[in-house]
C-alpha cells in the first residue's frame, strides 16, 4: 500500500477468512472441499488494495512512480518469500533424489514468479504425475506478482493519454477495467470446461478477479452505500465464501462461472467496510483473532504448504486431526516470527529504491543458487537416462538359476536421482498424443519394407512397452507403429475424466480416428495395452471398439497390465531397512482388476501375460537383473522395458535375433 494509506479492518478480517479457508482445505480437504476459493478472495483483495494505491497516487501527484511502486512490492513480498524458499531448499534431502529436479524447478519457477505457468504446463503432462511439490502454492503469488508488474505499465500510459484527451481519470479506469475484466472472465468461462488445468493456473483467466477488486477501489465512493445495506452485504459476503468453501470440490469446474460466487462475496465484504450496525459482520471481521490472522496471513500462507508436504513425505500419510492441528500451530508460529522479524523489518520506506531492487535481485539469485547447488552436489544431470548397459534385466528372470533376492540393491540402474527421467523416447520425439488433442500420432520403428507390421494401441501403459519394440525393430524384420494417447482408453464410449471434470470426448474422437487409421493400414497384428485404473463402466465401449477391429479381420491381442505398486520403488530402495521384503510386494498387492482382461475374455481374444517375467510365484521385485523396474508406481523404466524385447520375441514367436 501507499505509505499514506491506513489499514481497513474489514479487509484484514477478510484476509483471515481467506487464509483459514485455504489452510483447512489443504490440511483437511474432506472438511472444507472448496476451501481453495480463499485464493480467489486474496485476488480480489490484492486488486482492491493495489489499484486503490495507484489510483490515489495518480490523482494526488498526476503520475505513478513505477520504480517506487516496485520497490514497495519487493519490500513487502520478497524477503519472506525468500526465507521460505531457502527453507524448502534446505529440506530437499528429506525427499527422494528422484524428486530433487522437480523441487528445484519449483523453486526456480517460484523465484521468477512464473510458478503458475509451470504448473499449468504440468496440469496435462502425464509425466508430471501427481507429486505435490513444496513450492506449488507459490502459483497464486506468481499471478499476483505478474499483475503487480504489468498493471502499472498498462495504467500509467493510458491514464496519461486519457488526461491529454480530457477524459476524467475515474472514467478512464472504468474503460480499462471493463476491457480487462470482461475479456478475462469470458476467456475463463470459455477455457475452464475445455482445459481446466490451464484455466486454473493461468494469469489470463484470473485477471478479472483482480480487476474486480480494482473496480471497487476506484468506484466505491465513501458514503454512497447506506449503513444497513453495508451490514447486509458484509453478512451475505461472508456466507457466500462459506457456501463456496462447503459446496465446491475438486469436481467443480473452476474458475469459470463458479468463481463468481467467492469473488463477488469478497467484493461484498469489502463494500461493507465501516458498517456500524451491531449485527453486521464487523463483530467477526474486526475481532482480535481475525485481525491477527489477517496481519500474518501472507507469511501463514507461505509456510503452511511446505510443512504439509514435508510431513506427508516423512510420514508417508496425510495429516489427521492431531497432526493437522500441530501443522497449523507450527505454521502460525513460523508466520509470527516471519512477520515480526522479516516482513516488518523490510517494509520500512526508508530503504532507497535502488538498494531495494538490488537486494531483491540478490534474494532471487541466492534462492536459485542454493537450489541448484543440490543438483551439482548430487552429481545429477536432469534428463539423464541409463543406456548402453550390459545389465541383463529381464534376461535374468528367464534364467532358472536366477534369484532376485540376491540382487545388490545398492547397485542398480537407473540411479534414483535419474529414474523419473528414464522414459521412452516417445516423449522426446512427441509421437505420444497428449490429453487435449485427437489426431493420431504414430511412433514408428523399423523398416517399412519389413515382413511383419505390428501396431500397439493404448495409453501410457502402452507407451512404456515401446522401448522393447524399438529394440526388436532395430534388430529384426518387423515394422512397429505405436498409437498412444495420455490417460485415454481405446473405446467407442466417452468416460468421465477427472482432470477435465467432464466426459473425455477427446479420447473418444481419438479412438474413432485410430479405427480409421487401422482400416487404412491393415497391420498384421494389433496389440492393446491399457492402464487398469479405468472404471468398469468402460467395458461396453471397449468391447465395441475391439469388435470393430476384429470385424476388419485384424489379429487383435491384449496385454495384461503390469504391476501397480503402492509405493515409489526408488524411495523404498533408498529408505527401507529391509529392502528385499519391503520393496518386493506380493502379487496380490500389485494386480488390479483389469478391464482389458475382462474384455479380452468376453471377446475370446488372446492375452499376453508378462507376469512371469516380472514376478515369481509370490512376489514382484523392483530390481531385476541389475535394473530398476519401475520409474513410478505403475510405469516401467525405459531401461528395463528395453530388455522386455526378449519376452515379446518369445511370446509373439517373432523371428528376431537378439544379443
TrEMBL record:
InterPro entries: Acyl_transf_3_dom, Acyltransferase_3, SGNH. This is Acyltransferase. It comes from Microvirga mediterraneensis. One of its GO terms (molecular function) is acyltransferase activity, transferring groups other than amino-acyl groups. PANTHER family: ACETYLTRANSFERASE, ACYL_TRANSF_3 DOMAIN-CONTAINING PROTEIN. Residues 10-332 form the Acyltransferase domain. One of its GO terms (cellular component) is membrane. The chain crosses the membrane at residues 12-28, 34-55, 76-95, 146-162, 174-193, 199-221, 228-248, 254-275, 296-314, 320-342, 354-377. Keywords: Acyltransferase, Membrane, Transferase, Transmembrane, Transmembrane helix. GO terms for biological process: lipopolysaccharide biosynthetic process. Residues 430-649 form the SGNH domain.
Amino acid at each position: 500500500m501507499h505509505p499514506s494509506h491506513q489499514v481497513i479492518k474489514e479487509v484484514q478480517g477478510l484476509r483471515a477468512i481467506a487464509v483459514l479457508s485455504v489452510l483447512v482445505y489443504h490440511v483437511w480437504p474432506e472438511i472444507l472441499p472448496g476451501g481453495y476459493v480463499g485464493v480467489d478472495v486474496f485476488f480480489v483483495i490484492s486488486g482492491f488494495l493495489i489499484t486503490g494505491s495507484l489510483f490515489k497516487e495518480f490523482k494526488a501527484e498526476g503520475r505513478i512512480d513505477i520504480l517506487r511502486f516496485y520497490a514497495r512490492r519487493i519490500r513487502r513480498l520478497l524477503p519472506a518469500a525468500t526465507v521460505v524458499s531457502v527453507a524448502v531448499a534446505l529440506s530437499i534431502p528429506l525427499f527422494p533424489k528422484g524428486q530433487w529436479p522437480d523441487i528445484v524447478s519449483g523453486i526456480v519457477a517460484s523465484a521468477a514468479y512464473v510458478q503458475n505457468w509451470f504448473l499449468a504446463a504440468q496440469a496435462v503432462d502425464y509425466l508430471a504425475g501427481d507429486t505435490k511439490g513444496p513450492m506449488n502454492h507459490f502459483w497464486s503469488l506468481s499471478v499476483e506478482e505478474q499483475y503487480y508488474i504489468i498493471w502499472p505499465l498498462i495504467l500509467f500510459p493510458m491514464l496519461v493519454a486519457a488526461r491529454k484527451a480530457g477524459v476524467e481519470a475515474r472514467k478512464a479506469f472504468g474503460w480499462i477495467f471493463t476491457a480487462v475484466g470482461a475479456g478475462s472472465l469470458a476467456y475463463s468461462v470459455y477455457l475452464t470446461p475445455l482445459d481446466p488445468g490451464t484455466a486454473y493456473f493461468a494469469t489470463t483467466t484470473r485477471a478479472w478477479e483482480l480487476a474486480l477488486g480494482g473496480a471497487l477501489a476506484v468506484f466505491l465512493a465513501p458514503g454512497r452505500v447506506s449503513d444497513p445495506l453495508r451490514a447486509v452485504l458484509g453478512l451475505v459476503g461472508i456466507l457466500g465464501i462459506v457456501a463456496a468453501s462447503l459446496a465446491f470440490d475438486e469436481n467443480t469446474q473452476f474458475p469459470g462461472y463458479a468463481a463468481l460466487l467467492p469473488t463477488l462475496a469478497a467484493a461484498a465484504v469489502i463494500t461493507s467496510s465501516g458498517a456500524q450496525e451491531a449485527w453486521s459482520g464487523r463483530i467477526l471481521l474486526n475481532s482480535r483473532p481475525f485481525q491477527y490472522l489477517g496481519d500474518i496471513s501472507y507469511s501463514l500462507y507461505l509456510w503452511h504448504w511446505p510443512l504439509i508436504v514435508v510431513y506427508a513425505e516423512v510420514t508417508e500419510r496425510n495429516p489427521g486431526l492431531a497432526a493437522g492441528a500441530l501443522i497449523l500451530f507450527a505454521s502460525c508460529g513460523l508466520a509470527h516470527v516471519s512477520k515480526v522479524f522479516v516482513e516488518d523489518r523490510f517494509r520500512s520506506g526508508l530503504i532507497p529504491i535502488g538498494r531495494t531492487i538490488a537486494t531483491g535481485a540478490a534474494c532471487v539469485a541466492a534462492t536459485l543458487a542454493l537450489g541448484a547447488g543440490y543438483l551439482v552436489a548430487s552429481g545429477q544431470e536432469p534428463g539423464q537416462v541409463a543406456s548402453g548397459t550390459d545389465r541383463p534385466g529381464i534376461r535374468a528372470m528367464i534364467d532358472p538359476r536366477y534369484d532376485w533376492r540376491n540382487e545388490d540393491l545398492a547397485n542398480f540402474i537407473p540411479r534414483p536421482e535419474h529414474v523419473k527421467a528414464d522414459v521412452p523416447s516417445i516423449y522426446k520425439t512427441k509421437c505420444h498424443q497428449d490429453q487435449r488433442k485427437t489426431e493420431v500420432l504414430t511412433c514408428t520403428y523399423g523398416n517399412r519394407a519389413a515382413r511383419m507390421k505390428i501396431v500397439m494401441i493404448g495409453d501410457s501403459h502402452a507407451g512404456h512397452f515401446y522401448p522393447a519394440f524399438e529394440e526388436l525393430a532395430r534388430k529384426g524384420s518387423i515394422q512397429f507403429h505405436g498409437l498412444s494417447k495420455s490417460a485415454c482408453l481405446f473405446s467407442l464410449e466417452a468416460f468421465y475424466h477427472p482432470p477435465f471434470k467432464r466426459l473425455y470426448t477427446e479420447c473418444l474422437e481419438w479412438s474413432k480416428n485410430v479405427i480409421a487409421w487401422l482400416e487404412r493400414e491393415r497391420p498384421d497384428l494389433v496389440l492393446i495395452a491399457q492402464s487398469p485404473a479405468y472404471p468398469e463402466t468402460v467395458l461396453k465401449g471397449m468391447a465395441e471398439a475391439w469388435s470393430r477391429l476384429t470385424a476388419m479381420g485384424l489379429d487383435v491381442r491384449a496385454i495384461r497390465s503390469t504391476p501397480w505398486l503402492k509405493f515409489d520403488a526408488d524411495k523404498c530402495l533408498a529408505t527401507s531397512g529391509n529392502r528385499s521384503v519391503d520393496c518386493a510386494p506380493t502379487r496380490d498387492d500389485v494386480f488390479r482388476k483389469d478391464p482389458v482382461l475382462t474384455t479380452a475374455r468376453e471377446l475370446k481374444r488372446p492375452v499376453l501375460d508378462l507376469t512371469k517375467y516380472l514376478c515369481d510365484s509370490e512376489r514382484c521385485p523392483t530390481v531385476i537383473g541389475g535394473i530398476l523396474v519401475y520409474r513410478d508406481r505403475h510405469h516401467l523404466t525405459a531401461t528395463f522395458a528395453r530388455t522386455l524385447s526378449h519376452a515379446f520375441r518369445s511370446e509373439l514367436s517373432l523371428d528376431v535375433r537378439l544379443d
